[in-house]
Design brief:
Length: 190
């Protein structure tokens, strides 16, 4: 929803931003420029489905996908097993929840943990944190990056810099039961 709002705002503001420009064709290009630089960040659009899995529409340029799975919207997706990034690379994870269930019964987030943090322990402590969008209190130190919660049809995102230290870092969804259901993966830093 937030993305839609921002896009709508940009479209709305475009005529005002253009004021003072002399040539129409030129202004079109100019208003597109800020958007363009935003999109230079490598963006990985993942989807959360009712089967409690992270999936993608097409294989990311670097990462591993598995079996095909049909989501509640009738579309086929690929199970996302891991995401590969370069050390120090700026990346954006955009997460859309597919489905029509109420947000209180089916929402997803994406939380990247520091190395050494056990995802099963983290998921267990998150169950108590309903009021905090399932981000466990006092565990900010364990998190490298995280999105908010996205209910059905909503999109959330987070932009962050990949760790400089090569290795694999766990990510998970902390909505109750989802980690246990398989909503997890590894961010591989090369
Ligand atoms: Cu989830």
């Amino acid at each position: 929803m937030r993305i839609l709002q921002v896009t709508a705002l940009l479209v709305f503001m475009a005529p005002f931003v253009c004021t003072g420009q002399t040539e129409d064709a030129d202004t079109t290009t100019k208003t597109a420029t800020p958007d363009q630089s935003q999109e230079d960040i490598r963006t990985i659009h993942i989807y959360g489905i009712n089967q409690m899995k992270y999936v993608v529409k097409t294989s990311p340029e670097a990462g591993k996908t598995g079996d095909e799975v049909k989501a509640s919207d009738g579309n086929k997706y690929l199970l996302l097993e891991n995401i590969e990034v370069s050390a120090g690379q700026k990346i954006r994870i955009r997460l859309t929840t597919v489905g029509e269930l109420p947000a209180s019964s089916m929402s997803h987030n994406w939380i990247l943990l520091k190395s050494g943090v056990k995802p099963s322990d983290f998921a267990s402590s998150a169950i108590q944190a309903k009021d905090r969008d399932y981000i466990p209190e006092g565990q900010e130190e364990a998190i490298l990056a995280h999105t908010g919660l996205a209910g059905g049809g909503e999109t959330v995102e987070v932009t962050f810099t990949a760790p400089e230290k090569k290795g694999s870092y766990d990510y998970l969804c902390t909505f109750p039961g989802h980690f246990q259901g398989g909503m997890k993966g590894k961010l591989i830093v090369n």
